[in-house]
């Protein structure tokens, strides 16, 4: 049936209903695109040069200390039976390593981005909610209860697998070791430290009692409340190393910030000379064919050293220039033939 | 016999006839009154009720591939441990389903409203001697219903009583078959005046859709007498949907109700069909589904290959729990497969349908709103009844149009006549002989004047026109006065009613030249001649018009006692019956008029002597009373009487074309559409209209396939048909080889068509049809005349189902389509580009999901999502859908004026060109390119994740967020590049979407959400923006991924109309 009563009113005569809205009709003509490409090309080349040069100025020192080779200093620590193994890696700098120097550790073939691994944590525990200390979430399994069925805090695979090699850096001056102070503050995201993660409230003035009835993660040598006994602000879930570890890496080959060298004599950087790095080798990676390394690097406004961005900008910039020229030629030809037709 | 028949009436379902008790009164003759069950008079065009809406609508929606697919994905997410939560696909699905349900619910609500208007319409029913007002839906079969003037019949009625004296009533069936002229219907003879106590039964066939067929009989029981039997035909049946005209009141008995009425049966089978765009979408979805499955298979396989390496499957830091260890290996594989499916499922855009739905829905408003579709006369704009097929407007290949009222105004005008070989044309100046002058040749004034007057009298007398009774008030005064019943109304305003508008035109024509028909009163016709004297003629006989004879006659008696026969009819039927020497003089004029597109009629007369009349009179009376073979007997008698006449002249009447009909037709043909005219009209008229509206050009060769060409003594009709088919086809093919530019027009009539459609041997059907189609497809224009409405539908269906399933467009039914056809190509032109968005949407999703796929290679195939769940969920429904919608609604890639002038542009978008595989492939390749670019660009950046100047490192969510940001900006800007018509809405939506994305990201990452079990995006976006490198990589990736598009736009030879092209395509020079 036709419904006649519906549209008896005259349609509104507005620009919208009549599809006459004033419209801007840009045409991507060669006259705009060619200069546009030229400008973009120039700008990109400029940025690219800047990026590339900046990247070149960044100093990076990388050392693998996994100990695969028999003659490497940490080889002996790779043997399973050795407990509390310490090894010493030495290196020398021929020039000043400009500060502030950032001290990273790096892991390869390590999948922090495994899905099951990634969800294996209890956010409520990590906000200090003691309710969840007693019954960790299922996703933490198999790292939620120990063999005696005590709840693990912090539960889950991420926390359990926290990187626990520690390093001490010494400058060797005339045969004596001078300790380089390593700054462990400010290595994690500000929001992680200040907002996202919270420690449980102390019970009867004792932080440790908040963890009563729970056990430490299986692979940890000590409990969460003992991560940094020297500084209560760096203890428990707010331990900076812990926070850095909890922010999962995107790729199986990654580096994480370990320390900054910002203090004392080394605020301006590491002067030229010989250095010794004492590694407390705890973290096993060989079972999954992983590698561990140390990275010293300084950063610029663009972050760490990364040549890719500069090169990409140079390439795309040049590409734009080339295309502008090609288009100019094509356009000129096309335009002339058009005029011939007319 | 009667008894047995009426007893059978009980089980209606099994017999082919039904018995109706008039007024539900048991009839004396039958032993038992068996009230039979018929359906009630409710019309239901709506699909849902309040109760079944939810289940039924859901069921229908989930029948769509995509929706069903998402439901499955959702269920998998609920059941299996999958990388993303069920919310990510549940929410978009819910959104899509809700929006679609709302839209369909709204449309159904409109249908409900329309149904209700019809069903609740108050109707007067005679019940137990009283008139009772009832709602229309309460009418039962057997009820006696009263209908007053200008009301629509609420159901199919047998006319029992009319307020007109002669037992007739006039109806117009405009809303049924589009014929707006008045048709005469007759009461059943001998029904008593007192309907309250009419004991009668009606026995008629079961409902069938043919509007022009009805067979039944009525038994009228009289006390102490054999029941009288009256046969009932279509002339007694008043159809639901038709309107009573020029008759104050009628009463009739209901025979068919509700969904069994002929109208409802004709409207049935309007099933929801899938639009072509949706079909293409489905095809593309299938491709994407294949990509999806292969991706999942690849990932699953690689996962197990990778895991087989030592130490990879279960490193110490990520051990499996007991349950995982216990799970069967193959089950694990299957679960992994499902997980990958879930992870990549967004490659199939959930919002695609909803965007398409919304676009159609909102787009239909533009049609409603369009001022150019507004008809000021009827105060109505275009009404979109279903928005489902909007986009098909851009894909039309065949246009089926009704003739009367659509191509023409159905408003006849007397143009000229030819009397005794001299042409008379009406001139505006009334000074000279009332403007009636000879326009060619010299003329013997005196003799000619006689002829003139005879001719005009003939026009005044030879017709079945009624004078329209003016408003009831005037009628009342007439009755009171009784003296001057013929109070002359202003002549120009005098209304006439006739079954054919031609007759009115002729009577009006005569009136303009001084002879006015005043009316028919008790068998006497009054005309006012030029001297303003009233002449009176006694109407003795009317030899009715019929399509076979193609003429009609009246026999009248003048005051002086002369008996005259006036006859008018088609030239072909008159010429053989008049003296040959008269013919030649007139034929020239007739032929000339016909080629000019006028409807021509010839007028002849004959004087009957008393003896002749007596013979004719008795013959006619006998034939009329004959109970058997009445038709044939009458026909024979007519033919006998209408001989030996002398030709007086010929008339030319113009059925004026709709404004710009010819231009529209040419534009349609220019746009590459094939135009078919389907009409109930007779062939000649239709043909001339086709010429007039330039559907047939002068050079068009016409191929005729009608009853006339089939009439061949030697062969049976069907054999002849086959022969003709082959000959025609051969001709067409042959000639199209030799002369490339020959246009063909094809004419077929209803009878022949039914022979084609339903041949006596079923086996031939497909052969006939394919032959028929082949011929039609080779013709630029096809004219089908004498069509029943259902036959029209048959034709449309046949073409629709033919090879390549072309899109068809039908125009017709009533006056509100008038402006629609005139402007149809406008709407089509503007609305043509929609299909593209479907492809776009899918390519959006390809570059959306591809990085996620690539990420699997870097995360140990562990189904780690790259993007946060919120982004996965919102991508389709919030970040990208609005610009697409606005684009599809508002884009005018070519301006309206150019489109209007340049119908050939339509060819570009017809055939679903925008949705072909080539562009689809292009978009897909582009999507892959972009996906690779996004992922690896960021991958190389993350080779050193220390991206901030404080040396801190970014994690996996930062990675995903950078990719996602590039993605959202790229797809939106790509759309911006493609937008050629930037209204403020486009600006608002495009920049708004981007702003919304940024705002949302800040918001989403700026708050610790209490209901979330993890806060993985907390400050990720803000941190990302604090890194210069992230900014730089986002900028370069966006630019790089847009580069191909920009290049294509610039380097492609600028298409689209230049000014000179436009003139080339103009239909004709103004």
From TrEMBL, chain A:
Keywords, alphabetical: Membrane, Transmembrane, Transmembrane helix
- Cellular component terms per the entry's GO annotation: endoplasmic reticulum; Golgi apparatus; plasma membrane
**Transmembrane parts of this sequence:** 27-53, 311-332
Q: What is its main location?
A: membrane
Could you tell me where this protein is found in the cell? Membrane
Do the record's keywords include Nucleotidyltransferase? no
Kindly list the biological process annotations in GO that this record carries: phospholipid translocation
Q: Which PANTHER family match?
A: CELL CYCLE CONTROL PROTEIN 50 (PTHR10926), CELL CYCLE CONTROL PROTEIN 50B (PTHR10926:SF19)
Which family, according to UniProt? Answer: Belongs to the CDC50/LEM3 family.
Give the protein's recorded name.
Cell cycle control protein
State the species of origin. Answer: Sinocyclocheilus anshuiensis
TrEMBL record, chain B:
Q: Where in the cell is it found?
A: Endomembrane system; Membrane
What SUPFAM superfamilies would the database entry show?
Calcium ATPase, transduction domain A, Calcium ATPase, transmembrane domain M, HAD-like, Metal cation-transporting ATPase, ATP-binding domain N
Domain named P-type ATPase N-terminal is located at: 36-89
Positions contributing to Mg(2+) binding: 402, 404, 813, 817
- Pfam families assigned: Cation_ATPase, E1-E2_ATPase, PhoLip_ATPase_C, PhoLip_ATPase_N
Binding site residues for ATP: 402-404, 503, 545, 568, 599, 679-681, 786, 792, 816-817
Domain of life here?
Eukaryota
Q: Biological process GO annotation list?
A: phospholipid translocation
Any idea which GO molecular function terms this record carries? ATP binding; ATP hydrolysis activity; ATPase-coupled intramembrane lipid transporter activity; magnesium ion binding
Q: Which reaction does it catalyse?
A: ATP + H2O + phospholipidSide 1 = ADP + phosphate + phospholipidSide 2
- What Enzyme Commission number(s) apply to this enzyme? 7.6.2.1
Q: Which residues form the P-type ATPase C-terminal domain?
A: 845-1053
* This protein's UniProt keywords: ATP-binding, Magnesium, Membrane, Metal-binding, Nucleotide-binding, Translocase, Transmembrane, Transmembrane helix
Locate the P-type ATPase A domain: which residues? 121-261
User: Is Cell membrane among this UniProt entry's keywords?
Assistant: no
User: Which protein family is named in the record?
Assistant: Belongs to the cation transport ATPase (P-type) (TC 3.A.3) family. Type IV subfamily.
PANTHER family listed in its UniProt record: PHOSPHOLIPID-TRANSPORTING ATPASE IG, PROBABLE PHOSPHOLIPID-TRANSPORTING ATPASE
* Protein name as it appears in the record: Phospholipid-transporting ATPase
């Amino acid at each position: 049936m036709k419904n006649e009563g519906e549209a008896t009113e005259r349609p509104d005569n507005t620009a919208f209903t009549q599809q006459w809205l004033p419209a801007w009709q840009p045409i991507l003509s060669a006259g705009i695109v060619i200069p546009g490409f030229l400008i973009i090309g120039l700008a990109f080349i400029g940025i690219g040069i800047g990026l590339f040069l900046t990247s070149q100025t960044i100093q990076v020192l990388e050392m693998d200390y996994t100990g695969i080779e028999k003659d490497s200093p940490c080889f002996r620590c790779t043997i399973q039976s050795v407990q509390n193994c310490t090894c010493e890696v030495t290196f020398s700098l021929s020039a000043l390593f400009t500060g502030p120097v950032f001290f990273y550790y790096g892991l390869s073939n390590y999948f922090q981005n495994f899905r099951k691994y990634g969800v294996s944590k209890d956010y409520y525990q990590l906000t200090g909610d003691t309710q969840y200390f007693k019954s960790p979430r299922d996703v933490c399994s198999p790292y939620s209860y120990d063999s005696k069925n005590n709840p693990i805090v912090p539960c889950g695979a991420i926390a359990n697998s926290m990187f626990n090699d520690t390093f001490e850096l010494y400058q060797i001056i005339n045969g004596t070791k001078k300790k380089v102070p390593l700054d462990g503050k400010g290595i994690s995201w500000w929001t992680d430290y200040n907002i996202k993660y919270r420690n449980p409230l102390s019970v009867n003035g004792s932080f440790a009692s908040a963890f009563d009835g729970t056990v430490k993660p299986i692979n940890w040598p000590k409990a969460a409340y003992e991560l940094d006994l020297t500084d209560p602000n760096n203890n428990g879930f707010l331990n900076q190393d812990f926070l850095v570890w909890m922010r999962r890496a995107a790729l199986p080959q990654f580096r994480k910030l370990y320390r900054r060298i910002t203090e004392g004599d080394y605020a301006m950087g590491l002067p030229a000379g010989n250095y010794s790095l004492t590694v407390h080798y705890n973290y096993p990676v060989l079972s999954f064919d992983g590698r561990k390394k140390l990275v010293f690097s300084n950063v610029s406004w663009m972050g760490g050293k990364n040549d890719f961005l500069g090169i990409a900008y140079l390439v795309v910039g040049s590409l734009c220039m080339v295309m502008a020229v090609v288009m100019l030629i094509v356009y000129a030809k096309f335009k002339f033939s058009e005029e011939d037709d007319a | 016999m009667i008894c047995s028949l009426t007893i059978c009436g009980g089980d209606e379902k099994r017999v082919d006839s039904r018995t109706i008790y008039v007024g539900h009164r048991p009839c004396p003759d039958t032993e038992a009154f068996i009230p039979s069950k018929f359906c009630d008079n409710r019309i239901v065009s709506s699909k849902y009720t309040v109760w079944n809406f939810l289940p039924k609508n859901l069921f229908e929606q989930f029948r769509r591939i995509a929706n069903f697919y998402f439901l499955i994905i959702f269920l998998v997410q609920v059941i299996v441990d999958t990388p993303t939560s069920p919310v990510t696909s549940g929410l978009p699905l819910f959104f899509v389903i809700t929006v679609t349900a709302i839209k369909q619910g709204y449309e159904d609500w409109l249908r409900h409203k329309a149904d209700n208007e019809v069903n609740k319409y108050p109707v007067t029913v005679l019940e137990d001697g009283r008139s009772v007002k009832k709602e229309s839906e309460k009418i039962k079969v057997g009820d006696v219903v009263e209908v007053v003037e200008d009301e629509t019949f609420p159901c199919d009625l047998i006319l029992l009583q009319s307020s007109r004296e002669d037992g007739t009533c006039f109806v117009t069936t405009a809303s049924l078959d589009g014929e707006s002229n008045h048709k005469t219907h007759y009461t059943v003879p001998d029904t008593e005046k007192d309907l309250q106590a009419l004991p009668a039964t009606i026995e008629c066939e079961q409902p069938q859709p043919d509007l022009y067929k009805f067979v039944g009989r009525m038994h009228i029981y009289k006390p102490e007498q054999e029941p009288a039997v009256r046969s009932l035909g279509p002339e007694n049946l008043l159809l639901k949907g038709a309107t009573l005209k020029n008759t104050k009141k009628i009463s009739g008995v209901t025979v068919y109700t509700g969904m069994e009425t002929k109208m409802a049966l004709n409207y049935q089978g309007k099933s929801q069909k899938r639009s072509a765009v949706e079909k293409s979408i489905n095809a593309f979805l299938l491709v994407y589904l294949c990509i999806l499955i292969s991706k999942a298979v690849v990932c699953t396989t690689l996962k197990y290959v990778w895991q087989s390496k030592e130490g990879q499957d279960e490193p110490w830091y990520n051990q499996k729990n007991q349950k995982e260890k216990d799970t069967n290996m193959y089950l694990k594989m299957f679960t992994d497969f499902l997980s990958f499916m879930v992870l990549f499922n967004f490659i199939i855009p959930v919002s695609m349908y909803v965007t398409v739905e919304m676009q159609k829905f909102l787009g239909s408003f533009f049609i409603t709103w369009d001022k150019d579709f507004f008809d000021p006369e009827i105060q109505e704009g275009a009404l979109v009844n279903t928005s489902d097929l909007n986009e098909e407007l851009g894909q039309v290949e065949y246009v089926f149009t009704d003739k009367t009222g659509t191509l023409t105004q159905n408003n006849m005008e007397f143009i000229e006549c030819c009397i005794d070989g001299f042409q008379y044309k009406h001139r505006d100046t009334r000074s000279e002989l009332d403007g009636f002058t000879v326009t060619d040749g010299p003329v013997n004034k005196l003799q000619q004047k006689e002829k003139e007057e005879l001719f005009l009298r003939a026009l005044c007398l030879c017709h079945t026109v009624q004078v329209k009774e003016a408003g009831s008030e005037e009628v009342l005064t007439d009755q009171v006065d009784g003296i001057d019943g013929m109070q002359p109304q202003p002549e120009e305003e005098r209304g006439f009613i006739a079954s054919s508008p031609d007759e009115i035109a002729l009577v009006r024509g005569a009136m303009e030249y001084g002879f006015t028909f005043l009316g028919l009163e008790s068998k006497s016709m009054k005309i006012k001649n030029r001297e303003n004297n009233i002449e009176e003629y006694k109407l003795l006989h009317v030899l009715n018009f019929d399509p076979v004879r193609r003429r009609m006659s009246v026999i009248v008696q003048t005051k002086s006692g002369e008996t005259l026969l006036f006859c008018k009819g088609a030239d072909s039927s008159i010429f053989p019956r008049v003296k040959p020497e008269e013919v030649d003089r007139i034929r020239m004029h007739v032929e000339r008029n016909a080629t000019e597109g006028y409807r021509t009629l010839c007028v002849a007369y004959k004087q009957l002597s008393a003896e002749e009349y007596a013979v004719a009179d008795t013959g006619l009376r006998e034939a009329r009373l004959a109970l058997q073979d009445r038709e044939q007997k009458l026909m024979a008698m007519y033919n006998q009487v209408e001989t030996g006449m002398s030709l007086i002249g010929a008339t030319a009447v113009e059925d004026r074309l709709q404004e710009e009909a010819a231009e529209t037709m040419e534009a349609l043909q220019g746009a590459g559409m094939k135009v078919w005219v389907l009409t109930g009209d007779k062939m000649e008229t239709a043909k001339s209209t086709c010429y007039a509206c330039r559907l047939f050009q002068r050079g068009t060769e016409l191929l005729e396939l009608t009853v006339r060409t089939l009439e061949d003594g030697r062969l049976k009709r069907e054999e002849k048909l086959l022969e003709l088919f082959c000959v025609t086809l051969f001709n067409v093919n042959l000639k199209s080889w030799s002369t490339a530019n020959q246009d063909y027009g094809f004419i077929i009539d209803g009878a022949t068509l039914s022979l084609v459609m339903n041949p006596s041997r079923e086996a031939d059907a497909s052969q006939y049809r394919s032959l028929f189609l082949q011929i039609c497809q080779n013709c630029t224009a096809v004219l089908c005349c004498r069509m029943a409405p259902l036959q029209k539908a048959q034709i449309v269906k046949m073409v629709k189902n033919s090879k390549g399933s072309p899109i068809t467009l039908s125009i017709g039914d009533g006056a509100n389509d008038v402006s629609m056809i005139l402007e149809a190509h406008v709407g089509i032109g503007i609305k043509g580009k929609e299909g593209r968005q479907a492809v776009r949407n899918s390519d959006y999703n390809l570059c959306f999901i591809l990085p996620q796929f690539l990420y699997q290679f870097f995360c140990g195939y562990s189904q780690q999502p790259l993007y946060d769940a919120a982004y996965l969920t919102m991508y389709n429904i919030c970040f990208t859908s609005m610009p697409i919608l606005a684009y599809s609604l508002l884009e005018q890639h070519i301006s309206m004026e150019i489109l209007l002038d340049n119908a050939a542009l339509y060819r570009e978008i017809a055939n679903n060109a925008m949705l072909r595989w080539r562009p689809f492939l292009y978009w897909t390749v582009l999507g892959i390119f972009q996906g690779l670019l996004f992922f690896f660009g960021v991958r190389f950046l993350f080779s050193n994740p220390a991206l901030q100047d404080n040396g801190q490192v970014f994690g996996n969510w930062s990675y995903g967020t950078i990719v996602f940001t590039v993605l959202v900006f790229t797809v939106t800007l790509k759309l911006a590049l493609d937008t050629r018509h930037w209204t403020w809405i486009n600006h608002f939506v495009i920049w708004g979407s981007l702003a919304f994305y940024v705002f949302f990201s800040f918001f989403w990452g700026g708050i610790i959400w209490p209901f979330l079990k993890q806060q993985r995006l907390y400050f990720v976006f803000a941190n990302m923006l604090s890194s210069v490198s992230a900014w730089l990589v986002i900028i370069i990736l966006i630019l790089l991924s847009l580069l191909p598009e920009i290049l294509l736009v610039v380097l492609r030879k600028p298409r689209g109309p230049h000014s000179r092209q436009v003139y080339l395509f103009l239909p004709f020079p103004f």
